[in-house]
Amino acid sequence: MLIAAIEKCAAILPCVISRKVALPTISWSLTSRNYFNCPPTMSSLHANNQCFPPASFFYYGSLRKFSSSLESQSVGITPVVASVHDHGSRIEVRAKNWPNSLHIPHVWLRDHCRCAQCYDPKTFQCNFDVATMPLNIRPSKIALLQDELHLTWPDGHESRYTLQFLWHHSHGGHTSHARDTRVAWSAKTFPPLHQISVPESTISGPGLRKVFTLLEQYGVALITEVSPDLDSTIAVSNHIGPTLKTFYGDTWVVRANGERADAAYTRVALGAHTDGTYFTQAPRVQVFHMVEAAPEGGETLLVDGLRVAQVMQTKHPDAYDFFSTHAIPGQYIGDGQQQYALLKTFIHHPVTGAFQQFRYNLYDRAPLSTLSVGAVEQYYRHLQTLASVVTDQDAGVWLKLQPGSVLFVDNWRVLHGRAAFSGPRCFLGCYISNDDYISTLRTVMQLNVMK
User: Fold this and answer.
1) Could you name the domain of life of the organism this protein comes from (predicted)?
2) Phi and psi at residue 91, to the nearest 5°
3) One domain for residues 388 and 432
4) Can you give the CATH number for the domain in which 219 is found?
5) Domain count of the chain?
6) Which of 153, 264, 313, 358: CA 20 to 30 A from 95?
7) 438 within some domain
8) Domain co-membership, 43 together with 144
9) Are 67 and 135 contacting, i.e. CB atoms less than 8 angstroms apart?
10) Dmax over Cα atoms in the chain, in whole Å?
11) In CATH, what number is assigned to the domain containing residue 53?
């Protein structure tokens, strides 16, 4: 019945499929006239694109329990899992557990061959010479064996791809369907800070995964029962990523002693802000350990920048668009430094367009010389709107941090500040770069583990 159906379809299509079955799968050659009845002058479809396979040319995997008589045997065939369309530059791969099929260009497939010749399994580096690859390349043979797509190229090279690899790495697959797990919060909806003790966090297991889950969902995580000293603080933070060295050093100790040209080294209140707006890449994670709490005041303020972005986009779209399209300068001058960066306030993912980073610091603004006269007027109007959302009384959460509790803050999302205080107050901390944070996140959470 299967062969009869194929022959019936082939009869009305420009290319006639001859009966040629290779068990346990059906595979079809795109270059051999044994499979397609093409003009005898054509030695291959790679050389001449005038003869195409049928518009819906399907490949079946896992053909089970075949007897010698295909015509009379009732067989269990898995649903259509792959197909080729007649435009000749890509294939369509379909799996029954996918929400959609994948349209994958031949050039992508050749470049992403993961055999040892094309891709070094030890260094995870590409060896294939993509610069000289024929741009009109197409496989001469396609087959699906269980959950693997097998391709043979015109030069005889063979490539194999698991369906999982294709789903995770090609356009339209996993990335397109990845769910945003971030949860915006306000003062009323701020989640309880799940306290994770050091014994949990010092192992690469559930405790550490919980820290990353909280950072990804809420932008904050708290680890308790840490000895109130710098070495213990760094030992804990190293599980998230190595410390980022800046002109502050690898780590910092903040007291109200005026040691740095920064308001943080005073006793005054600090409004909600993100750090490093004078860096081209602001630190991703900021680590706070209050080893000596002030006797009066000094509470820590947290504001969710994701919620700020959502409110701005919904209620003040003009202001949101302005800060998403106009770069605003930031600076740090002092201690022998002249740091300067020019970036947008709201930064979005380059592919999905989703909110990715909020750069907001009213203290470290540089002279506004980068905007036109008209844009300057818009800037101050929109800045006051943005500031009102950040300082809204429902936005901020106040915490009284105590020695032994290490707070991790996603500096690309969550703003921090503090109340004015009197008396001694000391906290230790460090930064973790975005690159190192993402690397550890992917390793611990086993994200995209296929190299």
Assistant:
1) Eukaryota
2) -120, 160
3) yes
4) 3.60.130.10
5) 2
6) 153
7) yes
8) yes
9) no
10) 93
11) 3.30.2020.30
**27 inside domain:** yes
pLDDT reading at 124 higher than 80? yes
Kindly calculate the radius of gyration of the chain based on its CA atoms and give it in whole angstroms.
29
DSSP state of 377: H
Average pLDDT, the chain: 82
Place of tokens 């949860």: 183
Beta bridge partners of 327: 344
- Residue 287 half-sphere exposure toward CB, CA atoms < 13 A: 32
Residue 38: which of 25, 27, 54 has the closest Cα?
Answer: 54
Q: In angstroms, rounded to a whole number, what is the distance separating the alpha carbons of residues 348 and 95?
A: 32
Whose CA is closest to 219, among 328, 99, 303, 97? 303
Residue 182 within a domain: no
83 and 41 housed in the same domain: yes
Work out the pLDDT band at 201, boundaries 50, 70, 90: low
Question: Do 84 and 103 touch, CB atoms closer than 8 A?
Answer: no
Mean pLDDT value of segment 390-417: 96
**Cβ–Cβ under 8 Å, residues 44 and 36:** no
Query: In the numeric block, which tokens belong to residue 387?
Result: 């500031």
Asked, for residue 400, whether it belongs to a domain, the answer is yes
- 278 and 148 part of one domain: no
Residue 191 has pLDDT above 50, yes or no: yes
Q: Are 416 and 301 in contact (CB under 8 A)?
A: yes
At 242, the pLDDT band (50, 70, 90 cuts) reads very high
Q: Domain span at residue 319? A: 195-444
What SS3 class is residue 82? strand
